[in-house]
Amino acid sequence: MMVFERPHALLDVPLHYCPGCTHGIVHRLVAEVIDELGIEGRTIGVAPVGCAVMAYDYFACDMVEAAHGRAPAVATGLKRADPEHNVVFTYQGDGDLASIGTAETVHAAARNENITIIFINNAIYGMTGGQMAPTSLPGQVTQTSPYGRDVKACGYPVKICEMLSTLDGPEYLERVAVNNVKNVKAAKKAIKKAFENQLAGKGFSLVEVLSACPTNWGMTPEKALEWVQDKMIPYYPLGVYKDRSAKEEAK
Amino acid sequence: MADKVLMKGNEAIAEAAIMAGCRHYFGYPITPQTEVAAYMAKRMPKIGGVFLQAESEIAAINMVYGVSSTGHRVMTSSSSPGISLKSEGLSYLAGADLPALVVNVQRGGPGLGGIQPSQSDYFQATKGGGHGDFRMIVLAPASVQEMADLTVKGFDLADEYRMTAMILADGTMGQMMEPVEIPKIEKKEFDKSWAVTGTGMGRKHNIVNSLSLAPAELERQNFERFQRYGRIQEKEAMWEEYRMEDAEYCLVAFGIAARVTKAAIDEARKKGIRAGMIRPITLWPFPEKALAAAAEKCVSFATVELNMGQMIDDVRLAISCKRPVKLIHRAGGIIPSPEEVLRGIENMEGGAEK
Q1: How far apart are CA A88 and CA A77, in angstroms?
Q2: Which of A185, A223, B178, B299 has its Cα between 20 and 30 A from that of B198?
Q3: How far is A223 from chain B (nearest CA, A)?
Q4: Rounded mean pLDDT of B86-106?
C-alpha cells in the first residue's frame, strides 16, 4: 500500500510561509530528491536571506545560513572543504541570487563549481514586503514600482538561465515552474538531475523555479498560479538552457 | 635549533599558515599583500590543499565562512580597501561564532589611498570591523619572525575562542625580508562538534547561523560572546617592554613604528633621556594592565603611529588619562625616521625641551 508521507529530509515543523506560497512545494521536492538519492547524511544546505532564510530549520541535513547573495561563495567553501564527501546545495530567491549576489552566481557558474543551486524566481522581494525584484516583469506593480516597472528608469528583468548559458562553465541550467501538477513533476525531475550531476562530479547545476507569491502579488493563490502561467512563463520560457553532458553524449 | 631561511613577511605568513594545518586559502589580488596569494597558489596544490582566487574580497571571505563552517582551518588575506569589503563577512563570522584567520597588510587610506605602509586601519581592526557588537583578536607583528609566529598563534586563538583572529601588519612587514625560523607546531585539539560535516544520519542537524529573531535570545548570545571576550582580555594580552625598568617617558608603538621607536629610544638614552617603550603585540586585547602600571611611574606617554592618531585613544583609556599622552606620527604611507621620533621624545610633556 502506498502511503503519502513527509520526506525524511524535511523536518516535522510548521513552515512560516504564507498560504498559497510555492516555497513549500519546492522544499518538499528537494527533500524527496535527498531521500531518493540517500544523501541526507552528507548533505549541507545553504539558506539565503529572503523568505527562505529559515530553511535551515526545515531541512534535516546540516545547514548554513549565508549573508545576502553570498550563498554560492559559502557553498564553494563547503564543497571545497571535502569535495568527495559533502553534497552542497543552495536555496536562493531572486533578490538574493540575481541582484545582490549576481557576482557570486556568475563566478560559481564560470568555475563550474560542483554544487546544486535551487533558484526561486517569484518576480518580487517577499520577505521585505513586496519590492521590485531584478526579475519583476516590465510594468509589474510593486511597492517600489507603484506605477509599474518602467523599463526606461529601472531597466529590464535579468534572465538568469539565458545569461548563464552564455558561459562555458556551467554543466546544467533548466527553468521549471510549480504552477500545476505537470510542471511540478518536471521540476522534481530537474532538481533530481541537478543533485545527480553533483554526485557524478559534473559541476554547476542550477534549476530556476518560477514560483508564486500571492501575498505580495495581491492575488488569491489560484490567481497567482494563473499569473505564473499567463505572465511569467511567456517572459521566462521553460526548458533546458544548458546540459553539457547530454550535448556531448549526442555528438 | 632549526635552520633559518630568508623570507618576505608575506611569505612567512603563508608558510606558517600551512604549518599550522591551514589547507584552504581564498583571496583576491591587492598590493601590498599579493605575495601571500602567490605563495599559496604555488604551495597548496602540492600538498593537497586549496588555493582559490575569488571573484572579489566579498566572495573570498564568504568562502572562508563556508570552509570554517565545516571545522577546517582557513584563511584569507588582503590590504585595507579589501578588508573594508570583507567587513560584512567578518560580522557574519562573529555572529555565527566561526574561527578564521584574516590578514590585513595595511596601506594608506581612506578610499583607494596609496600602496605604502600604514597603520590607519587600527580602529577598523580593534573596534569590531563590521556591523554589530563584536571583537576580533588583533595581532601586530613587528618582525618577519613574528609574522610567522603570530600566524600560528592566531589560528590557535581563533579555534579556541571561535572567532576571527586578524594579523594587522603593514606594507613594510609584508615586503621586508628577514631570517625566519618557521615554527614547529604542537598539534592541539579543539572542540568542533558544532561543525557542519553531514549528520551521517547519526545526530540532529547542525546549523551555522547568525540570525536570531527573538530579542531575548539575541541578547543572550551577545552577553555570552562578551563573557568570552572578557576571558580573552584577562588571559591573552601580549606585549613587549623595552628599557622600561627605569623609564620616565613611555612610548607606545606597534609593528614597524615600534622598530623605529626602539632606535629613537636608544638615541634618547645617549642624551640622558630615560625613555622606554611598551609594544602591544595584541592590539585587541589591548595590554591595559601594562599601560596602567607604567602610568604609576612614568611622567608622560607618547604613541608613535602611522596614522592620524588611533591607538592613542586606547592608551588614554588604559591609563585613565592620568598622564599626558602625545602623538608622534606620520600618515599617507610615510614612516617617521628615528630622528623625527627622537625630536618627538624630546618634546614630550615634562620632557627635556619643556
Answers
A1: 10
A2: A185
A3: 32
A4: 98
Q: Residue A191 above 50 pLDDT?
A: yes
Q: How far is A178 from chain B (nearest CA, A)?
A: 28
Q: Exposed (0-12), middle (13-18) or buried (19+): which is B213, by Cβ within 10 Å?
A: exposed
Question: Nearest-CA neighbor of B151 among B175, B125, B117, B174?
Answer: B174
Q: Which residue type occupies A244?
A: R
Please state the pTM of the whole predicted model. 0.97
Residue B198: which of A44, A73, A79 has the nearest Cβ? A44
The one-character DSSP state at A201 is T
Q: How confident is the model at residue B1 (pLDDT cuts 50, 70, 90)?
A: low
- Our CA-based measurement puts residue A102 at a distance from the nearest CA of chain B, in whole angstroms, of 11
Could you give the 3-state DSSP secondary structure of residue A59?
Answer: strand
Cβ of A81 within 8 Å of Cβ of B89? The answer is: no
With cut-offs at 50, 70 and 90, classify the pLDDT of residue A217: very high
Instruction: Specify the CATH number of the domain B240-346.
Output: 3.40.50.920
What does the domain layout of chain B look like in residue ranges? 5-198+222-235, 240-346
Interface test with A, best of B205, B210, B213, B217 (most A CBs within 10 A): B205
Residue A215 predicted with pLDDT over 80: yes
The band of A189, judged by pLDDT with boundaries at 50, 70 and 90, is very high
pLDDT in tens, A149-169: 999 999 999 999 999 999 999
The arrangement of secondary structure in B5-198+222-235, i.e. its CATH architecture, is: 3-Layer(aba) Sandwich (3.40)
Between helices A71-81 and A102-110, what is the axis angle to 10°?
40
Residue B351 confidence (pLDDT): 56
Angle at B218 between CA B213 and CA B223, to 5 degrees: 180
Check A85 against B198: CB less than 8 A apart.
yes
Nearest CA-CA distance, residue A152 and chain B, Å = 30
Q: Does B66 sit within 8 Å of A81, measured CB to CB?
A: yes
d(CA B280, CA B240): 7
Q: Which of B50, B55, B64 to mutate to test the interface with A (most CBs of A within 10 A)?
A: B55
Q: State mean pLDDT over B319-329.
A: 97
- Chain B positions touching chain A (beta carbons under 8 Å): 24, 26, 50, 52, 54-56, 58-60, 62-70, 72, 74, 88-89, 92, 96, 196-202, 205-211
Residue ranges per structural domain of chain A = 23-132+158-250
SS3 of residue B26 by DSSP: strand
Choose the weakest-confidence range: B1-10, B221-230, B289-298, B304-313.
B1-10
Which CATH architecture does the domain made up of A23-132+158-250 adopt? 3-Layer(aba) Sandwich (3.40)
Is B92's CB within 8 Å of A60's CB?
Answer: no
Distances (CA, A) of B156 to A113, A226, B31, B150, B236: 30, 57, 27, 10, 12
